[in-house]
Amino acid sequence: MDTRHCAVDGWVDAIPVPGPRDTVSFDLVVRPADIDTLADDAPDTIVTCTSGDPRITHALLTGIQPGDLLRVTGTLVPPQAPGEPARLAADALEILDTALIPTLSDMALDRYADYVVIFDGDHDQVPVFTASGRWVGLADNPDAITTLIDTDQRVNGGDA
């Protein structure tokens, strides 16, 4: 198996995931240096990264969010089978740029006795939960919340 030590710059694709034995894994979206010469619909390369270094694991699990631009240095292991991603065993991590902090647009929580609802200005539907976190359902609109709560109370006896 051909491995090589390299540095890869890319954007974090999703929240890093803790693994077994104090490891972490995450995907980087990597664009080629000659991106201007490629077709607009050319796919990005996804590099799956792992690390067991406690400093890197801590940084990834506490301070990295999707969209952050990182330089990851480590040992690149080519895919073991066609179609599988290459894997980078990271031994150094540098944050080159951070993603914008997401903002919630017109979102609010409200409470109906033992029920919690989430109003989102971008959607008519309203998620409904019990105060203890049990999923109740999705009301089609704010006017349908009480109907959904009444149904839940009949079915579950008002269990919150």
Walk me through this protein's architecture.
The protein is mainly beta. The chain is built from two helices and ten strands, in the order E-E-E-E-H-E-E-E-E-E-E-H. The chain is 14% helix and 42% strand. The longest helix is centred in the C-terminal third of the chain and has 12 residues, at 145-156. The mean pLDDT is 83.
Which strand order do you get reading across the main beta sheet? 1-3-4-6-5
What proportion of the residues form beta strands (DSSP E)? 35-45%
Radius of gyration (CA) equals: 22 Å
- Counted beta strands: 10
Question: Structural class, from secondary structure content?
Answer: mainly beta
Q: What is the subunit organization of this protein?
A: single chain
Instruction: Provide the succession of SSEs.
Output: EEEEHEEEEEEH
Large-scale geometry: elongated
| Gap between N and C termini | 56 Å
Low-confidence stretches: none
Count every helix, treating DSSP H or I runs of 4 or more residues as helices: 2
User: Can you give the helix content as a percent range?
Assistant: 10-25%
The overall pLDDT, averaged over residues, is 83
Main sheet?
5 strands, mixed, barrel
